[in-house]
Design goal:
about 60 residues; mainly alpha
Length: about 60
């Protein structure tokens, strides 16, 4: 299933983006979302042992 996402940008950002018409901004945003989710997943893997250790000390 495909979902549509609408974002709001200010005039200054739109102006900067329009200087690069060759860039597919939808592709850029999808990649940024995927990267963000991957970093969150990695962060959770590494912080879980720390949180467990802290709880054991309490």
């Amino acid at each position: 299933m495909v979902r549509e996402l609408t974002i709001t940008i200010d005039d200054e950002l739109e102006k900067e983006m329009s200087k690069c018409p060759q860039i597919d901004w939808a592709v850029v945003l999808r990649k940024a979302i995927k990267d963000c989710l991957k970093r969150k997943e990695i962060s959770e893997v590494y912080t879980a042992p720390v949180e467990t250790a802290i709880k054991q000390e309490e």
